[in-house]
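=== Given protein ===
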Amino acid sequence: MAISVGPLPISPISLSHSPPSRKDEMLSRSYSDPIPLPRRFSVLKERLVSGKESTLVPSWQRLLQSLSDEVDLVSSLGPQAVPTIDFSAIKKPRVAEVFREGLRQRGVAIIRNVIPRNTAEDLYGGAMEYLDENSQKRPRTPQESDLQELYWSAAQIKARGHPNVLEAQRFAMGLWTSRDPKARVATNFPITYADRMRTGQGTADTGTPAAAHIDGGSVERWETDGYGRAGTYEDIFQGRWERYNPWESSTRLTVTSDLYHKAGACSIFRMYQGWLALSSGPSSMRACPMLKHATAYFLLRPFFSPSNPSSEDWSFTSPPNSILHGALPSYAQEINSSIHPHLQLNRSLIDIPDLQPGDYLIWHPDLIHSVTPSAPSASVICLPCVPLTQTNALYLSRQRKSFLLGCPGPDFFDGCGYGTGHGRGEAHYVGRPGVQEVSEAGGEEGLRAMGLLPWDEEEADTDFEREVLAMANGILFPDLYDMY
């Protein structure tokens, strides 16, 4: 397999806090050959697998066989591999359990009709009006992209605080478990993460094909100071990939997924990424619905190589090199057919079923997916499912200030008004909502999700959940506890 020995590509984003361009965002998705990293990564790889060859080799062999079967299955199912449920059925135990099992296996799902169709269509109309009214104030979007640098429109505020959306998020996050009963995470109290929206009006960029990738960092997944803090993937690196549980939350609470400060990277713990559809149309996303298998494969891939470029005989690489296939500091994790051949992406990367207004598409943060800004497609609000944790509460306190000032959220700018939103963000936009509009959209629950109202600690189901609420209240409302 060819190895590029040229200099490590450096993103402009990694050297400054300038707003990322579409070109910058795609840079990490243009390399078909693995790229050597600094020597410390070979040392890191050696530490991860030292003395484990006798367990990793048979584990890899078992994985390849099982992965081949999974590819055959999802390829035969196509879009039907994506489990769906109507929002009205999420409280029906039997239906809900079948859906949860499908989501547990596939890592991606659709909850249909979370908000009424006419409500979703009204939100779409309002978003387009907000864009038109402020067309002279906002940055120009690249012609091929439908991703709008918009965070605080009334449509987004109403969607995030809608009672059905919050209920759907609680339902979905209930799939996650924790092996540590004292883990400070509360899935019954979702919080808002202000992301952008896609209008579905972009034009396909035929010169830059969409690449499959995974968000939430890249090299961090192997690094001790990244996902290694609490051993998120320990079972995989110990040769026990079958025992790995992608839905275990306690090992993700102390993760640093953005060690290299990639602009626009998510710094909080999302249990799901998500899109809420506002209009009808095909989804611009494709997904590889083999969550456990694909995760184990791309994490173990850097430790194995073929005897020659065309060989199907792969062996353990010793001593390890510095390559982490598809991973570069400050970029998303790229997945492609050249360096990850066993995934058979031409068969396993499937289309997401068409979305209708009010549908909620959710996917696991480790899921391989690709997004093509082609037209026409459904207009969506980027709407992740975010539990209440210490790290997330700290982020929410900063995001609250951004909301009040009309600036992009902390992950999207450096200093008020700079970053992906440019200028002063939405500070001077006509029709930008405030606290009153949040209250009207979601009531007390919506205000709490935005960090604008303390949680009622008596609503906690357990003592540890009560501790999480008290911790979050202490961070967001220190005056309640005389914390100055």
